[in-house]
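Reviewers of the previous submission asked for a worked example of the structure-prediction workflow described in the proposal, so we include one complete record here. The input consisted solely of the amino acid sequence. No template or homolog information was supplied to the procedure at any stage.
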Amino acid sequence: MNFLAHIYLSGDDEEIMLGNFFADSVKGKKYMNYPVKIQKGILLHRAIDSYTDAHPTVRLSTKRLHENYSHYSGVIVDILYDHFLAKNWDQYHNQPLADYVDDFYELLRNNYEILPTRTKRLMPYMIADNWLLSYASVKGIGAILAQMNVRTKNKSKMNFAVVELEEYYDEFEAEFTLFFADLKAYSENKLEQL
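From that input alone, the workflow returned the following C-alpha cells.
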C-alpha cells in the first residue's frame, strides 16, 4: 500500500500514523530509536507490506501489469490502490479527505524534528503538490506515476501505467475493494497485537 492507506490504517493515534508513514525510511532495528508508539507504526507498516505482497487479490492486480512493468508492478498497484481509497474515501472515513489530508500535513510539520532525513526531503514536495489529495483523480495518479518514473531514471516506465488503470479500471477497483476489507481487518488485529 502507498502513503494514504498506511496513514489511514494507523487509526487515530498520531504517533502510530507518523511511524507508519515514514517506516520505509527506517531500516532494520533502527526503529527501536523511536518512541514506543512510533515503533508500533513502523512495525505495522512492515506487517501491512508483507500481508499485501502475499495477498492473492493483490497478485491478480500485479499480474495484469507484470508484462509491461516487471518488478515495478507491485509499486504501481500500491499507488493505484491509494487512488481507489481516495476516490471512495467517504465509504471509509467520515472526515472529508481534504480535511484529513490537511490535518496529516499539519502533524508532519509539528513533528518535523523527529522525521527521518529522507522524509524531511520528501515532505515539502508532498505538501506543495498535495499528493495525498491528488490520489483521488486519475490525472493526479498519472502525475505521481510520472514522478516515480523519474525517480527510477525512466527505467520503470511507470508513467504509462495510467493506460492500464483506465483500461482495467473496474477490475482494479473491484480487486482493491475486496482486498482492502481484508487488509483493514488484518491491520486492526495487528495493531492490537503490537
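The chain has a mean pLDDT of 96. We consider this example representative of the routine output the project will generate in years two and three.
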